[in-house]
Amino acid sequence: MTAACRTGPPDTADWRDRAACARHPEPDIFFPTGRGTEEVQAKNICGRCPVAEECVREAVRTGSMGIWASTSTRQRQRRHRAAPTARC
Ligand code: SF4
Prior knowledge:
DNA binding, iron-sulfur, binds iron/sulfur cluster, mainly alpha
């Protein structure tokens, strides 16, 4: 096992407290029903977020739906399928 393969729960309280979406007045925009204005708004907010890296790791780890770190559920699924499997 290498340091890069270290597993365990992330320090969620820390990174989520710094999330740009943490106190957004319209959290539903991160769960758009189509590819419209809401998705663009959410991705713009993610583009200014200081914890996007932690966010996308968590989304992939948990298989979460919606916009996380400027990626849609489908985009994360495609990237995950294309990425080589880690050998830990
Ligand atoms: S990257 Fe986007 S979804 Fe993730 S914590 Fe930041 S603002 Fe929220």
